[in-house]
Amino acid sequence: MNDEESVKQVIETYIESMNSSSSDMVKQAFHENSKIVGYLNGDFLQMSADEFAGFVSSQDPSPKDSGADVEYEILSCEINGATAVAKVRDKYLGITFLDSLSFVKENEKWTIYNKLFHVEE
């Protein structure tokens, strides 16, 4: 598997973590020191990977179980050595997000290091 395929697989893990409300999958996709940052309903939000994992796992029933699967599209993916940047549009909990994801490859494993999100109107 090349680096672009590996990064896209991490994106799929991230999306599936939200779809199935899995904190374990969030922790698999995100670097332990990552930050999730953006504006939601006019409020500036900052979360650690653990806080985001807790939020995702608190969605009960999960989108998958409620029949509202997370929809997503990878808009771009650029690899630069052991770093990468991807832009992803996803619809989660009835909200359309535009995510700017940065990745780092550490010990041959790609993870999301930062997630900046924008809510689309």
What does this structure look like?
With 121 residues, the protein is of the alpha+beta class. Helix content is 31%, strand content 50%. The chain contains four helices and six strands. The protein has helices spanning 3-19, 23-29, 49-57, 63-66, and strands at 30-40, 43-48, 71-80, 83-92, 95-106, 109-119. A six-stranded mixed β-sheet has the order 2-1-6-5-4-3. Helix 1 runs antiparallel to helix 2 (23-29) and helix 2 runs antiparallel to helix 3 (49-57). The model has no long low-confidence stretch (mean pLDDT 97).
Topology, please?
Elements (H helix, E strand, L loop, with lengths): L2 H17 L3 H7 E11 L2 E6 H9 L5 H4 L4 E10 L2 E10 L2 E12 L2 E11 L2
Parallel strand pairs: 1-6
Antiparallel strand pairs: 1-2, 3-4, 4-5, 5-6
Instruction: Report the order of strands and helices.
Output: HHEEHHEEEE
Largest sheet: 6 strands, mixed
The best one-word shape is globular
Number of strands: 6
Largest sheet, spatial ordering of strands: 2-1-6-5-4-3
With helices defined by DSSP (H or I, 4 residues minimum), what is the helix count? 4
The percentage of residues in β strands lies in: over 45%
Which value, in Å, is the CA radius of gyration? 14 Å
How far the N terminus sits from the C terminus, by CA atoms, comes to: 36 Å
Can you tell me the residue ranges where pLDDT is under 50 for at least 5 consecutive residues? none
Structural class call reads alpha+beta
Name the average pLDDT: 97
> Helicity range of the residues?
25-40%
